[in-house]
Amino acid sequence: MLPGHIGMRRRLHEGPFANVKLASGCDRRCTFCAIPSFRGSFVSRRPTDILNEVRWLVDQGVLEINLVSENSTSYGKDLGDLRLLESLLPEIADTGLERVRVAYLQPAEMRPDLIRVIGATVGVAPYFDLSFQHASAAVLRRMRRFGSAQDFLSLLEQIRAVNPRAGVRSNFIIGFPGETAADFQILLDFLEQAQLDAVGLFTYSPEEGTEAAGFTDEVDPQEMALRFDTASTLVEELMSQRAEDRIGETVRVITVIGRNQFQGPEDGGTRLTTPADAEVVVARVVASEGADLVAEMTHV
Ligand code: SF4
Q1: Given this structure, which CATH class describes domain 247-300?
Q2: Helix, strand, coil in percent for the chain, rounding step 5
Q3: How far is the CA of 195 from the centre of ligand 1 (A)?
Q4: What are the 10-residue block averages of pLDDT along the chain, 300 residues in total?
């Protein structure tokens, strides 16, 4: 039984990893997204409920917790404290788990204190799951999002000033209505400069009921497929390069899930050169295989 008044939670999967919900809904209105129409406004869970759930999971043997929501940077705004994530993360990190990770950070809502807490708190994974979606300011505006390639590069600079080894993942939509060849080139140039550890690419497809579904300047499907192939080839190369750059680094690997602190659940993994008995080991990265790392245990 889970303590507090959040009711019962039965774990669907045993193992050292669990998602914990931070909030539900979204107050943003990205033109391609239907989520706000069916999930409603952003509602944060109370910090005490989240902490109780985390403590219960830690008692069940969970080592890594992934905090999920539609937009984790907004956590606390409906509770009157927009900096609640900055205070909650260290408390979660203090519950005895190996690490807590935050999913779905909005680039436009990132702030220096949050970068510091995620980048430099023991027990918080120095990992930034930033949903950029594009890098061309014109396309971003049509998506009703903010920023530009320059803004995003300077955000990455701020993150790496706090922790040069921080992991960064992002998703991008290729072929959003109105995306010109020049916009696409801006995206490719950005990807080359951003040195992201993990990248998810998607071709645009309209979702019923969204504003963008009414946009008429669609990108020709063949052109979209071509752009997707070009971006995918580039991203594969860049992710391999980024993994190669990590050779020589020391990482903490949760052995059952084969993941270190810089890698998220959907990213490349870390394979140990020899099997380990311990749940968490310290290891040195000795090779890379595409986006995956190979590491040699140094100690438990
Ligand atoms: S893409 Fe994310 S931030 Fe934008 S409306 Fe959808 S859930 Fe909200």
Answers
A1: mainly beta
A2: 35, 20, 40
A3: 24
A4: 50 84 96 95 98 96 97 97 97 97 96 98 98 98 97 98 98 98 98 97 96 97 98 98 97 95 95 94 97 92
Q: How far apart are CA 83 and CA 267, in angstroms?
A: 28
Is the pTM here over 0.85, yes or no? yes
Return the closest-CA partner of residue 177 out of 209, 146, 132, 223. Answer: 223
CATH T-level topology, domain 17-246: pyruvate-formate lyase- activating enzyme (3.80.30)
Residue 14: predicted pLDDT: 74
Q: Would you kindly state where each structural domain of the chain is located, as residue ranges? A: 17-246, 247-300
From the CA of 218, how far away is ligand 1's center (Å)? Answer: 21
Phi, psi of 48 (to 5 degrees): -65, -35
Ligand 1 atom closest to 33 (CA): 6
- Protein residue with its CA nearest to atom 4 in ligand 1: 30
